[in-house]
Amino acid sequence: MDASLVRGLQATAARFPEKPVLLAERAALTWRELGLLAGRLARALAAGGVGPGDRIALGIPNRPAFVVALLAGWEVGATVAPLDTLLKEDERQEILRDLRPSMVLTAEDIAGVEAAPAGGTGAGPVRVSSRAAEPDLVPTPECGSAPALVLYTSGSTGRPKGAVLSHPAVAFANASWAGPVMGLGPDDTVLAALPCAHSFGLNGALLAPLLVGASVVLVERFSPEAVLRAIAQYRVTVFPGVATMFRRILDAPALAHADLSSLRLAVSGAAPCPWELAEEWRRRTGTRILRGYGMTELFRPISYLAHESADHPDAVGRPVPGVEVRVVDEAGRPLAPGEVGELWVRTPAAMSGYLNAPDETAAILRDGWFRTGDLAAISPAGFVRIAGRKRERILRGGYSIFPQEVEAVLLTHPAVAEAAVLGVAHPELGEEVVAFAALRPGARAEPEELVAYCRDRLAPFKYPRRVTIVERLPRARTGKVTRAGLGES
Known about the structure:
Layout: H1 5-15, E1 20-24, E2 27-30, H2 31-47, E3 55-59, H3 64-75, E4 79-82, H4 89-99, E5 103-106, E6 149-153, E7 161-165, H5 167-181, E8 189-192, H6 199-212, E9 215-218, H7 224-234, E10 238-241, H8 243-251, E11 265-268, H9 275-285, E12 289-290, E13 292-295, E14 299-303, E15 318-319, E16 324-328, E17 341-346, E18 353-354, H10 358-364, E19 365-366, E20 369-378, E21 384-389, E22 394-396, E23 399-401, H11 403-410, E24 416-426, E25 430-439, H12 447-455, E26 466-470, H13 483-487
Parallel strand pairs: 1-9, 3-4, 3-5, 8-9, 10-11, 11-12, 25-26
Antiparallel strand pairs: 1-2, 6-7, 7-18, 13-14, 14-15, 16-17, 17-20, 19-20, 20-21, 22-23, 24-25
Helix pairs in contact: 2-3, 5-6, 8-9
């Protein structure tokens, strides 16, 4: 396909101009209406001085306004950086300092987007500018060499990192999502209950469905009841989610009376989906969970595919078409099938690098290979089994959290001298964030106080649910804190 995802969306809009493409509680937009609003906003952005190569930050939840702003940003040639709306203000400001955007857009900046009814004019006001000439159905990009996206992920150094993704990378990723991975078509209706500010939600639940002309149902805030209601109301056929979502739905009393007859496929991502959970989901809903492996920097390079019926309990799938994988030893030498080593991935969907972080980029990208930091083994048939992680990272309910980021907040408390954070197994979330703190001489602080302190300063998915006060942190002979020793305490 064309290297520009936006040109693919333009072709789809021309095929289905009057088809409702975005469905939400307060709005329904056809392709024609979506193009009208996105084009008007693009002209408003241009009038405000935004042009090719600029960066735009989007602080918009799962609403039609998010899609309008994304397409408008691409039309003017800007690089778009979605921001998680759950971030605390300090976290948000840290990202903005790194991103240095020309503009930050919120839902309030784009008044009237949700007010346009399906079949109407879609001509609600746009506050950025009063200019409103008639646009094409979907903007024609002027992106040139500017990246398509900057997606932020927690940083291993305690600060967020922006993965820079090119238009060709985004186009490859979404062609893969829509084609071999999910097997989407125009008759599908996909549920977007995942945050559109995150890679899985943005691509698997939004852009890939739009690319093939499927309809997307936007759910602003996940709850089992909201998801089950949306599946029945809109006859949803594909449900991308994380293991936590599937677990909560299975545990919800509302499942007993839910109508899931339209659902043909569920897709897991962002965190491991236990085989036992996938089996229970299939047994109780009659629907398969398509498992896979990916990350913000790589999209989904390894997966089971929609047309494949076989599942292996201990594997996350095989490389999707166009992707290469290898397992290497500490010296970077390829290992034989079945041997455990670090997983390296080479894919056209890989990020170009981390924004403003050349050293971290160089440490993770080598000769076109992305060093995942995960330990894996590859079977003779090509199925990949994840054995563990080299890099310290906590996967909580589909979110990646690096301990250093949480530790940095704990260390700002006046009573805390040292802090260490790790993930512990959790039956629903995969892992839970817990912390250990050593206090300054003569200082006092209760565990609940430290939990509340972190809760006020970190996104809801990041703060530790439990803090243990210890006399001192265990250290190796090198002086480094040994988190494994904490896990045994």
